[in-house]
Design goal:
Elements: H1 2-33, E1 40-44, H2 51-67, E2 71-75, H3 82-90, E3 97-102, H4 103-106, H5 119-122, E4 123-133, E5 135-138, H6 147-156, E6 162-165, H7 171-183, E7 188-191, H8 195-204, E8 209-212, H9 218-223, E9 227-231, E10 257-265, H10 270-284, H11 287-294, E11 299-300, H12 305-326
Parallel strand pairs: 1-2, 1-3, 6-7, 6-8
Antiparallel strand pairs: 3-10, 4-10, 4-11, 5-8, 5-9
Helix pairs in contact: 7-12
């Protein structure tokens, strides 16, 4: 009889435990099923006015209309984008804090040996949003009209030409490092907290060069405040048809693109990440959104989560080599 009582008590305890487990899981499941039901924050880890900021605002507008919920852009520059990246990694794992990621956040963070989080394990990429070549631009006073002349000038006056970037490890920085290596051109890096400040100094002549994204450059090029020497893509940009590629200029190893992602904290449930992936890909299929990106020199991507992960793994291997060969590091 005692054994029967014990068995019944054990079954009751198991049943009660299962009920408690189901009850505690219910609000969590409900939170996923009606996502989103409030404001989403999209963190841009650079200053306003740059390429990442432009893409974030385009996406925030379309995503907000799709969800019927506000999607606000939050600029958090600094540390090559990692102040913003860390804030997303530390945010509640509910899908209401997203990141507009970049090469700096996902592929070149090896320049920071003492980084206080691990982007590879603390962030999950939802999709690669867009890809774009960079443009080598100079202040009009620089006596070079193409890459060959720029390289000759740099070699004749070592480390007197300064190039600005959006921060150490940013795509704008790494394109300059790649050029230094493939062209054996001794130029000096000057990091800023964002491209807008660097461009301001470039126009003023405080620095001489940048390896910048097309969207933030077009107005400067059209007004003659800056001049374009080359683009780093495989083909010429439709918005800059007269600017040769680096390969056409004699530097086939200087072919590279930067890219942006939409990412979230690593603990955000897969169900939410999958929904975001599907919805962002739907947005990128719309002709008006694609044209908005293409008009700025960007190519829409919008791949699956698995495709995005494989792409970033390959890109990290490539840029890790540039970092090692260039001994690029921040203590």
């Amino acid at each position: 009889m005692r054994n029967v009582v014990k068995i019944l008590q054990r079954r009751q305890a198991l049943g009660l435990g299962l009920a408690v487990s189901l009850l505690s899981a219910a609000p969590f499941a409900a939170a996923q099923s009606d996502y989103p039901n409030r404001t989403i924050k999209l963190v841009v880890p650079f200053t306003a006015g740059g390429s990442s900021d432009l893409q974030a605002r385009l996406l925030a507008d379309r995503l907000g209309k799709l969800y019927g919920q506000p999607v606000v852009v939050d600029n958090r520059p600094g540390a090559g984008g990692h102040i913003g990246g860390k804030s997303v990694a530390d945010a509640p794992a509910d899908g209401y804090t997203l990141l507009l990621g970049s090469i700096g956040l996902h592929a070149t963070y090896g320049v920071f040996p003492k980084l206080n989080y691990n982007p590879a394990t603390d962030l999950k990429v939802i999709t690669v949003l867009a890809e774009m070549p960079h443009v080598v631009v100079a202040n009009p006073a620089v006596p070079a009209s193409n890459l060959r002349e720029l390289t000759a000038l740099a070699r004749s006056k070592p480390n007197t030409l300064n190039f600005g970037s959006a921060g150490v490890g940013s795509s704008v920085h790494m394109m300059g490092e790649l050029y230094k290596q493939v062209a054996d051109a001794p130029i000096t890096h000057v990091p800023y907290k964002g491209s807008a400040a660097a461009l301001s100094d470039l126009v003023a002549g405080q620095i001489q060069l940048m390896f910048e994204n097309p969207p933030t450059l077009l107005s400067y090029l059209q007004s003659g405040k800056l001049k374009a020497l080359a683009v780093t893509g495989k083909t010429r940009l439709p918005v800059l048809p007269n600017v040769p590629t680096a390969a056409e200029s004699g530097y086939p190893a200087f072919v590279a693109t930067s890219w942006t992602t939409v990412a979230a904290g690593a603990k955000v449930p897969d169900a939410i990440l999958d929904k975001l992936n599907a919805d962002i890909r739907k947005i990128e299929q719309s002709p008006d959104f694609r044209k908005s990106l293409e008009d700025q020199g960007m190519t829409p991507v919008a791949n699956t989560r698995d495709e995005a992960a494989r792409f970033i793994t390959a890109e990290k291997a490539r840029w890790d080599k540039v970092i090692r060969d260039g001994h690029v590091t921040v203590e």
